[in-house]
Structures are given as C-alpha cells and as structure tokens.
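fwd from M.: "can u put these together and see what the complex looks like"

so here's what she sent:
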Amino acid sequence: MQDRIKYWKGIEELENTPEFEKHAHNEFPEFLPINGAEGGESASSGKTHRRDFLKLLGFSMAAVSLASCEAPVRKAIPYLNKPVDVEPGVANWYASTFYQGGDYNSILVKTREARPIKIEPNPSSGLTPLGTSPKAQGSLLGLYDNNRLRFPLIAGKEAKWEEVDNQIKSRLANVSGKVAFVSSTIISPSTKKLIDEFGSRFGNFEHVTYDVNSASGLLQANGGVIPGYDFSKANIIVGINADFLGTWVAPVPFAKQYIETRKINPDNPAMSRHYQFETILSLTGSNADVRVPIKPSEEAALVSALHSAVTGGSASGTAVDAKLLATVVKDLQANRGKALVVSGSNDPGVQELVKAINTALGAEGSTIDTAAPYYVKQGNDAAMLRLIEEMNAGSVGAVFFYNANPVYNHPLAARVASGLQKVGLKVSFADRVEETAKLADFVTPDHHYLESWNDFEPKRGFLSISQPVISPIFTTRQMQDSLLVWSNQSTDFYEYMRNNWRTVISGNFNEGWEKAVHDGVLENGTSLLKVSAPASTASSAIRKIQPSAIEAVVYEKVSMGAGGENSNNPWLQELPDPVSKATWGNYVAMPRQMAVDMGVKQDDVLKVTFANNESIELPALIQPGQANGTVAIAMGFGRDLDVMPVAKGLGASAYSIATVNDGAVLYTSGVKLEKTNATSPIAQTQTHHTIMDRIVVQENSFAKYKENPKEVTKYVRIATHEGPAKPAAISLWDDYEYKNHHWGMVIDLNSCIGCGACTMSCNVENNIPVVGKAEVLMRREMHWMRIDRYYSAKEHEPKDYAEMEHPADNPTVIFQPMLCQHCNHAPCETVCPVAATMHSSEGINQMAYNRCVGTRYCANNCPYKVRRFNWFAYANNDKFGFNEPMNNDLGKMVLNPDVTVRGRGVMEKCSFCVQRVQLGKLEAKRENRRPKDGEIVTACAQSCPTEAIVFGDMKDPESRISKILARQQGERAFHVLEELNVQPNITYLTKIRNLA
Amino acid sequence: MQHVSPIREPLVTGGKTYHDITEDVCRQVEAKPNVRWAAALAVALVGLAIFIYSVYRTLWYGIGEWGLNKTVGWAWDITNFVWWVGIGHAGTLISAILLLFRQKWRTSINRAAEAMTIFAVICAAMFPVLHMGRPWLAYWVLPLPNTFGSLWVNFNSPLLWDVFAISTYFSVSLVFWYIGLIPDFATIRDRATGPIARRAYALLSFGWTGSAKHWSRYETVSLILAGLATPLVLSVHTIVSFDFATSVIPGWHTTIFPPYFVAGAIFSGFAMVLTLMIITRKVFYLEDYITLEHIESMNKVIILTGSIVGIAYTTEFFIAWYSGVEYEQYAFINRAFGPYWWAYWSMMTCNVITPQLFWFRKIRRSLTATFIISIFVNIGMWFERFVIIVTSLHRDYLPSSWAMFSPTIIDVGVYVGTIGLFFTLFLLFCKFFPVINMAEVKAILKSSSEVKHPKSAATMHATDKDLNSNTHHNE
C-alpha cells in the first residue's frame, strides 16, 4: 500500500480554493486574519482607521521621544583577559617610597583597578611606620597632573625618544668642557652609582647637589652627613630656627621621635622640655614649651652664648633674656647625654658651634646616633655656586638638571640663566617645561615616582624601594633609564638596581629581593649609599649677618615644599598653612608691632625691595610670634607658567631674600617695605585666632599633671536641684542602644603637632573637592577635617571680649583637630526635614546625600561647624577647572571609587570613613570572626605621624580606644562643649606643657 | 445722605451713599488705568525682572551665588522669609481677630490687608524653596507616599512644622480673602459692560446672586474662617520661631521667641499695611474710606506691639546675663558691640525708639510721620531677623569657625526682587479687584439711627474740621 496519508495544513488546503492556490507558494501570506474584527472592507482597502492611526501615531511619538531620551552611551569595557592581580572592587597595596626635598616617607600605595588612589604609611618601616607628611599624601595627584609633559622635547618641539637619544648621544660624544649633573639630593644608592658611572666617561664630570632649602652648613660641619638625631632620647630639646617637625631635614621621622617623649602616662609621668628660638612662628615653635622670638642677626650670638655657657663660660653677648638663657643652660647641663640642640642655620660656622655644644652635652652616642646619620639632605651650596661661575665663564659643556630648577629658585637665578646661555648642551628631566627646562635644549621628562623603580637610603642602614604601581601614563622615561641609554647600556634601571642590591641581600637573592620589594624596606643595617665629605666647602667662620631695620627670611612652607615642586597641586595649595591657616599663595608675615608702626593692616599690599633692588608686591599677614623687626615670606610662589595653571598668579617669588654670604647661602637679608594703596585678600581658613576664654580646648602644665593628674582638665557641671551634675545626667533624650559596635575616636592634643597630614589624607580618601582661592575667601573650603589653631590672647581682664580677640605678641599655640563629633544626641539629626542625616546603629552620624535637599539647617545647628555644603557643582564644572581631581578625565582617576562624588546642593561631612568600616566588617564576616582592633582605621588616624588619633570600637573592652578612655576618664579625657550634652563619640585628651 | 452719629466717629467720611461706595470702589476696576498706577506697575515690573534674573542665577549655578558660607548657612534668605511671613500677619489678623472682636473699622482695610497677606506669604514661601540646595526636590519635605521605600519626613524637624504652618495659613487666608471677594465680584459683574470682563467676573463671583441664603452662608463661612484663622495668626510665627528656638545656637535657643515673634509679626504687618494704605488711598482717592481714624487705630497697635518687641529685646539680654552661660552672654554682647553692631542698633532705633513717637497724638494722626515711621518699622523688622540669624550664627561656639557674612549682588537681587514681585501682585490686585470690601463697608455706612444732628456733629468734630470737612449732610 503506497497510499500516503495526507495531512492538511488547514481547512484552506482541504478546500483548495483558487485563493489558496494563489498564495500556496508564499511562505508568508500577505493577508492577515484581522478581517473579523472590523469587517473586511477597511483592511483589504488599505485605509487606516482613525483609531489605528492614533495608535500608530501614539506609538511612534512615544518611540521617537524615548529614543531621544537616551543618555549618551559610556562604555564600561570588561577585561578581555583579566590581569592576574586586578580584582574589580578589591584594592591592591604596594609598598613604595616618597622622597622630596628631604621629606622621606616609606609608603603603601592603594590601587584600585590598577589606579593608585591613596597613599598610606608603611608599617614595616623603622623610620616612618606611623604616618605620612601632607606632601606625601598630596604627591598622588602629581601622577594625574594633566599638565605634565607627554613626550620629550627638542628645542621646545615634540620629538621621538629615538631622535632625542641620537642627538644627545652624538652631542655628548664630542662635548668639550665640564659635564655637570645638577640634582636635588639623591638618596638612591643605585641612582647615585649610575650617575657616577655615567659621568666616568667624561674627563671632567661633576654631580652637583643643589637643595633649595639647603642644609649645606650642617653637612659641612658634620662631614657630609646629617647627624643621626634621635629626639626620642632627649629630655631637653633646644631648637634654633630649625623647624624639625615641619620642614627641616626629615620631619616625619623626627615628629615620631619627638612625640615619643611627649606622650605622657599617668603611671610614670615624664616628658621632654622643648625650647625653641626662632624668627618665624614655625610648626615646631608652635609645639615648643618655651618659645623665644629672635632675629636672624641674633642667631649666631645666641649659639655662641649657648656654646660658651655649656662649655663652662658665661652666656653673654646675646639679646636673649639672660634669665631665660640661664634656665636653658641649667636644663641642658642637668641633662647631659639626654639633651639635644639643633639649628636650622645654613652657616657652617654656626653649625660647627652647634656640633660643639652637642659634643659638650654628651649628645653623641645618645641623642645623636653616630652610626646612623641621615642622608636626606646632601646639597652643597659651594659646589653649586662654583658651577654657576663656571657656566658663566663658559667652561661647562653640558649640564643636566634632575629635580632641580635653579633658574626659578636659586638666589642667583639670574646668574644661572645667563650662565646657561654659554652651555653647549642643556638637558632637563623636568616633568614639564618649567623655568629651567625652558632654557634647555632637550627636555626628557622623567616618570612620576609612582611609575618608577627606585631605591632610597634616607638614613644609614635604612634602605627602601619604590616600585611602579601604574604603567607610565605618558611617553615619559625614567631619568635613570635615559642615562643608561645614553651610556649605551642595554640593561634597564630595574635590572641595574637589582644587581646593585645583590650586595645587601644575603641568602637567596630572588627571595630576598621579592621580600624587600614586598616590604618596601630593608633594614638589616647594611648600607648602599656612598656619601663622602663635601669636596667644595665654604669657610667655617661664623658669618656676620648685618642687622638691618627689617630683616627678612624666606622659609619653606610645610605643605608646599621649598622649590615649587608642588605648585601645580591644587590639593596642597588649598591645604592651609598649619600656623597661619592661609591657603593659595604667599604673603609677608609681619609682627603686630611692625604693622602698627607702619600703619599696615592685614591684606594691605606691601612693596618688598630686596637687597638686589628687585622688588615684589605681596599682601601683609599679621603673624603673632614673628620676631619683632623681621618679616617672613614663603618659598615656592610667583610662578607664571602656562604649564602650572593652578599656581599661576599666586603670590610672588621671594628667593631673592636668600643671599650668598662667604660661600654659604643664608636664607635671610635686609629688605625695605613700602605700603601701597592696594589690598589683596589672603585666603585663610581661620580668621579668628584666640579661644575667647572658652574651654573648647584644654591645656595644663606638666607640674600640675605630676601633682595630680585628676586636676588638669576642667569638667563642666550643670547646676541641678541635687547639686552639680554631669551634663549627660540630665537629658531629654533616650540613649541609643549599640548592640554590635560603637565607633569612637580619641584625639590626644599632646601628640598632635598640627601638621595637617590628617586633613590631606581625608581629602584624598573622601574625594573632597578643591574650591579655589575665591571660594576659600568666601569661607567655603570643603575640608571635612580641619585643624583649629588657637593663639593665646594678650593679657586681658576677664570678660573683656574686645581685648581677648587679640593674640599675644608671642603666643603659645594649641592645635585641635576638628571633625564631625558623631554626637549621640546630634543636633543636626533632629532638624533635617527629610531625615537625610541620621544615626547609625553603630554610633556613626550618617549623611544620605541622595536624600539631602540642602536646607543647611543641620550645618547651622552644628555647634562644631563641621558640616560642609556643596555651594556649586564642583565636579565637571569649568568654573572649578583647577580642581583637577574632578574636572578632567585624567584627574578623575585619583577619585576613590568607594566614595560618592557629591553633587551640587547637598551637605557633606566626616563619615568616620564609613567605607572603611564597612569593608573591615565585611572582611571579618567573610572570615567568620569579629573585626580585630586596629584593623579598621580612618584615613586621618592612619596618616597621623604621631599617633595622635586613635579610632576604634568603644564596645570592645579590649580595644585600644576603650583602654585609653578607661584610663584617661577624669584625667585628661574631655568632650568639646560637653555642657551641650550632645554626647560626642570623639574624646580629646588635654594638652600638657612642660613649662620652664 | 449719610448720617452722623453724635457720639461715634464715622467710619466712612465724605457723606457717602451706598451708590457712592460702589462707584468709588469700582472706578479703578472699570476705568482705564491711571498714570500713577501705570508708573508704579512699571517700577514693580523692573523689580520683578530683577527677581527673575536673580532666581535664575541661583537655580542655574547654585546657592553659591549668595554670600553664605560654612559658618553662616542662612542669612538674607531666611531673614527675608521671616520678614515676609511677619508682614503676612496683619491681613488675617485684621480680618479675623477684628471680626471676632466686632471691630467695624476693619471693613475698609481688610480686603487690601488680606491681599497683602496673601502676596507676602507668596513672597515668603519663595525662600524656603529657593534656599534649598536642590530646590527641584522641594516636594520631599511633604509627607508624600513614595516609591523610595520607607522614606518619610522627619517630624522632629521645625522646618517640617514650617511647611505645615505656612501652607495651612496660606490656604486659610486665601479662602478667607476669596470668600470676602465674591459679593464684590458679583457687583462688578453686574456693572460690567465688556464681554470679557463680564465673563471673567462672572466666573470669579461663583454665581453669587445676593439672595438672603447667600448672605447668610457668607456670614457663617466668614465667621468660621475667622475662627480658624485666628489661632493660625498666632501659630504661624510661633512655629517659624521654633526654627530658631529649638536649636542649640546661642541667640537662637530662646524660649521667649514664640510670643516675641508673634508680636513682631503683627508689628511689621501693621507697618506694611500702613505703608500700603497711605499710598493706596492717595492713588485711588479713597481717603473717605481709609480715614485718619484707621491710621490712628493701627498706629496704636504698632505702639503696643513695638513696645512688646522692645521688652523682648531687653528680656533676652537679661536672661543671657542671668543664665550664666558664657556662650549666651557673648552672643548678646556680640550683637550689640560686635562687628554687626550697626545692624543691632538699626534694629533698636527703628523698632523700639521710633514707634514710641506715636504716643503723641499729633504724630499718630500725621500721614507723613506715619508713613515714615512705618517704613522705619519695616526696615527695623528686617534687621531684627538679620540680627537674630546672622549675628547668632557668625560667632557661635568654636572661635575657629567664626566668620563674617557679606551679601552678594544676587542676595540683594532676590530680596529687592521679591519686593518687586509683591508690588506687581499688589498693583494688579488694586487694578482688577475691588480694593475695599464694598459689601461690608455698606453695612457700616450707617453707624446710628437716622436722626439729624447737624450742629452737634459740627461741634463734636470741631478739631477735625479741616480733615473731615465733609462730615455734614450732603443734601
């Protein structure tokens, strides 16, 4: 049976109508079975019904308008091949090293998705395990500086590296005359070795080390090294114009040592006494127990008098009060072997005397570690001065500039510039065309340090490494690699450095090397850096500084550095000076008396005429503590370069104050001041300087503390019908119950030196916008954390409010880090109409930016005034173009992806680094344990070089913070404005001064 | 044919008839705009333009266009807000409280005073929205059900109380005002000749026919609304004062604020009513309706409330001293002798000293003096709010954050602009709405039974003869 069973596709096929026949071959018949609905006519006639038309119209309108609503597409491209170490959302940490102009910091670099976003101290380091300097924190932004050179230049024109190399090599091959390599201090053993090797090809080569803020005199007096000062062993510290906590030699290690002697413990109360003689009110002087203003011209006499008194003679010939000097001498002599005298003078003669004083006091071997001197400053003024003369004489054939910009910042800048005209080959490794690079034939931009391999030896036996944490952003090349190429070597600097390290790593080299790179430091006592006594020296006679009517000093600003290296860094420009609280620019700091005599008010513009008859115009800032008859101007301003848009138009350059005196550069000279009719406001973040007899910040004397530690702190008591009571005892509010954690912070005012590292660290961690000078003048800086600095008021009657507004002429200074106090009875939380700020179950006062409508009621009602409002859109806003981290694509790479960039019109404030708290809790949870104490730290606490800030869980009785609180309760622990009963989660510890 | 009572001062002078009233009041609605009105409107429109520009800058660029800073988070914005809310007190007070107290003299001024209230509250309400960082989210302060999860407003916040207080006050005032307008709209409708005017006023008058039932309901609703509005007059400024009183800032945290603010509000409200009335009666020739009696009565209220405010200022100082709290003490010493001393002494001079001149009958009854003093009071009350807000904030607890506030041109623009907005609205109201409540004024035209006492009337008012020269029968 071949009868096939027929399956019809449908009735139509069975019927097999002609209509069906016609369409049978069509797979997709045209007719649609909608006949039934509306009757066949309309459909087959092809006419559209009104309703259908409207439907279609509606649909197409909707479709078109929806399409136009689409946001611009921004592609997030996934990794095709995931890099081994990069986990999106998980940070990687690399050990590295920051070094700039003496400021040394062993650091850890946090990278997210291969972008460095934060710098933290490296706890493995023996020198700087605790914190960083503000500059180290800020250096991160230098990496993402949009104005860095992106390629090498030949005569100012873009060029290829091969071309540059060929030309330089050929010109070096037939160079005649001296070849000079000018750099700031290099503490890299491998780099130094490489430079020496590079120079060995030339008949006449010199590596001239030129430091803008030089310690040449100190080096000369101590055989080319800086004595291994150890402040931690000193009972008596005498500083003479040495800002060792802020800018002098190695401030971060020094601050750590210094504060070890200042942390007091009720069980065994002991603390050092610090005398400071200085011209400007420096950060160090602000921390001193006794501070005496002296003129620069009085410095040598003072050192001589001290010397003669310490060595058994009489202290005479100095303008310093004899009684006070006698106390100093008595203290020094009573503490032989436990005393230290340091001087910031750059006069070798003065430094010889200081050395003699320390020897006489038995400091060597105790407060000066003779086995481990510091290498962080090696600048040799005499050598640099000689080079300038040689250049002008035409005997220099080639000169290289590495981290040196003498055309801008040398006191004889004009001579440098004229000398350079006569040099055949000028090569600059600058990262942009700055003043010196402008005159160079070749600019071969160096990597940023975070893109480079390097090694460091800041102190004998303390080696550290920096490693690249990002591949080079631009077509720059590390200076060392350039030198290797120009010496026709085929290795790169990484190999070179590794080879160099073979001598210090014992055992398996690869393992040892990996460990050293991992730890970032190698401190096994071996040394790599070769330092010799300076070849060129200046006379070691004491130079006489002629007293003049107005003696001026030029000084290094704590946050800016000496040579203008950080001029284009908006973070650092906006970081207030720790003492004057001024941002964005320099000024003439003058004492009140001089201002009164001259009829000058703050912000009045003065014409400053230097000894060389050049003049600049700068506004005046009345600086209490400035020695009478003197003025001070900061280094590093007055840059007029298009490649430094951030610094353009800020302040004026005052390097001309520095003078060459008998082969030494002294940072002082006489100036003439004239009042002009102009004013130029100085952007200070704090404009009221005294504490108005309030007990918002507390201090007491060490004598009182020893007597009874329970009486050093004033506690406010509220009168009730049952007698005086703690403010917390009478409360309208129910207390929160903290079941799990209760985060808190203790800030020890005795440990805080006021450097501002916490502020800077907070800015970086929390994506805090830079607002610029105009907005700072409007009092709208956004810093979540500030350091309040109070001067003691001049003598006044109680309640004489008008009088107490004025600081004393030589005030004592106190610093108070101020941030959101995370009140348990927060005034801000109750007043927000939309509940955008509220309390967390762990005691953190939180801000929900998304919910904030911006009434600012919370900020008004905050007694600490720590809330910050986004007055404008600070991101993606041309008006704030200088705010690089938020206004250009490169700068945005620095932003912390864990923290929201706040929009216009919302309130923000310290969050206790809630992103870190959450991360710490999550990690602990993943490992099925409770977070360990010390595992979760806020950015400010982590960066503090003196451990003044302790953050932790107050619920955990074993935590450090709980122990401190338990011990200090009733002694030094106090809450600011306790009488308001807002019950802050931040506790302060009273400052203790060891008054003479 | 008006009749004059031998014992009562007539409330409407000039011997007006019922028809005269209708004519006088409808004249400006029906006639072509007069030159003085047009000129005033032009000036007001310039103010409005300034307002629009300043608001555009504020909204487009952000609150940073103002002079505020991290220490002084409110300044002109909330000063203006409280000032305008204060001004917005008089209308409802006159209408509601005086209605309840059967003060008949209110009838010829209540309409304009209420309009002023509405417009002042509109101006005031601009600021809480404009001063927000993100005004486009202003609706978040309303307890609206939402899709954001459990997000809800914070009922602890005085700002939220403000939202309720102001919106309630505004709605009740608006309804009260509008109900009063209905019979007069009907009158204008009936007289209207143009088709547009007829239709417009027909719509506005809600089909009022003047039937006894309508009148009865009208009276009832007025009374009910007056009853509702009276506590609101007291509550609004009480709640506004809570913004400050419930805070922790020295100079704000003061229990005296509620009564002191209410007195201040009535004080400033009456001053503004006087300023406007003196102009209006002149511009629209309404001297017979808004008489010297009205002005004198209001001046008496001003002297009372001004004295209350003066006592409040003194009490604050006393309490600051008595409290023993150094922050409080400093806050007040700083007000009087700190960097903003000029604001404080302007306030004292304008609010405490100048109104005391009204103890003299001559000054009380002098139009020029009243006008000048009313302006002084307006200025003084603005300074009062400025002093409370700015001088308390600029130096609070921690001296490190002390700062000064200086306004920007945009701050000034927004403020001047709201004055422009206010006068634009007020002038439009004057032109298109009956400024005097015709229906109610007609009710008080006859203040006593119709007995002729021509001679006694003349003798009784001998002293006022010049001013009230038309007090006699106009046969």
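replying to her w this: Chain B touches chain A through 54 residues (CB under 8 Å).
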